[in-house]
Write a structure and sequence with these properties.
Length: about 350
């Protein structure tokens, strides 16, 4: 039997969840609640039941799962109220604005005996899965460096995401996803963080950032988000000990250059504007295999399938609360580094 789902917040992301829930094989959309009358009307026009208040929704014993898809600053109060009413809870990212708030949420979930999850749905993105597969198979050897970027040119959305009190800015918006992905790609202790933010289109919150993460083994990661980039840099670039990989954007396949032999008998120099060079001469098919790998198969419904199975005790929860907390710690240190304009020694 499908679990009954109630959604708090019927904005862009809440409506996205509602549409997917209608197609789900494990959850059934039971209704929504929103403080904005226009969004309530939109839900009713789409044939969705709208509760008159949050309390009305939480009193409905039919609902098994409450999903919180509101601005970031009210996540905590809604999540805790839902847990105390006996509901399992999914919260949109970032789950909280501090690790302390998240710890309070987790504590309430334990007291209630209910399952709290965070919608880190970009673990199902095919570009991320392609890089993960290369790492898991060791196809081009051990990772040296991974660069992950999202670039756009339209600035921050002109809604609550551009206001600091509501938890706006790109670190908390896209950053939480890219950091979550990176900590899955390189599952090691973090020893250092350095972050710089930009304020090109607004002074209130970061409209872009560049985050350097340093790991215990010496591996390095770069996570970057820009909203004023009219030419985007590649979505992923990875250096490994036996080759390199590149994904230009999330619609493209992963390009791989795999090292076959380090030395060539004779390297022909190439002409540059100021002279010739052998060091930067391109390699050929004698020493490198160049190819593309197929885009992995992915299904966004697997988030809900796993969550429902975890509620029923049939599977372990894929998005673990300790992983979510670690991402929050990285973001807190990123803000500290950017504000203090310095490298942060840490052990996360």
């Amino acid at each position: 039997m499908k679990k009954k789902l109630g959604i708090v917040g019927y904005g862009g992301q809440g409506a996205w969840h509602a549409n997917w829930a209608k197609k789900s094989d494990v959850v059934e959309l039971w209704g929504i609640y929103d403080i904005a009358e226009k969004r309530v009307r939109a839900a009713l026009e789409n044939g969705i039941h709208a509760y008159s208040s949050l309390e009305d929704m939480l009193r409905d014993k039919s609902i098994d799962i409450v999903l919180c898809a509101t601005p970031n600053d009210v996540h905590k109060e809604i999540v805790i109220s839902a847990l105390r009413s006996g509901k399992n809870v999914i919260c949109e990212k970032p789950v909280a604005l501090s690790t302390e708030d998240f710890d309070d949420m987790v504590s309430e979930a334990k007291k209630a005996g209910k399952l709290l999850s965070v919608h880190q749905n970009r673990r199902w993105d095919v570009d991320y899965l392609a890089i993960q597969k290369l790492i898991d198979t060791q196809e081009i050897g051990e990772v040296i460096n991974i660069e992950s970027r999202i670039h756009g040119s339209r600035g921050i959305p002109s809604d609550w995401r551009c206001h600091k009190p509501q938890g706006g800015g790109m670190i908390l918006d896209w950053g939480v996803h890219l950091i979550d992905q990176m900590l899955k790609l390189i599952p090691e202790k973090i020893t250092g963080i350095y972050c710089q933010t930009t304020n090109i289109t607004t002074d209130e919150v970061d409209d872009g950032f560049t985050l350097h993460i340093y790991f215990e083994s010496g591996k390095k990661a770069l996570v970057e988000v820009g909203t004023y980039n009219f030419i985007a840099m590649p979505r992923f670039y990875m250096q490994a000990k036996s080759g390199s990989a590149l994904i230009e954007d999330w619609q493209k396949k992963c390009r791989v250059a795999k090292l076959k032999a380090w030395n060539e008998k004779e390297v022909l120099p190439v002409q540059t504007a100021a002279g010739i060079t052998k060091t930067m001469a391109p390699r050929d098919e004698i020493t490198i295999d160049s190819y593309e790998i197929e885009r992995p198969v992915s299904d966004v419904h697997n988030f809900y399938r796993n969550y429902v199975a975890a509620i029923d005790g049939k599977e372990p929860q894929l998005i673990k609360n300790e992983e979510v907390r670690r991402v929050l710690l990285v973001m807190e240190n990123a803000f500290k580094s950017a504000n203090e304009k310095k490298y942060i020694d840490t052990l996360i």
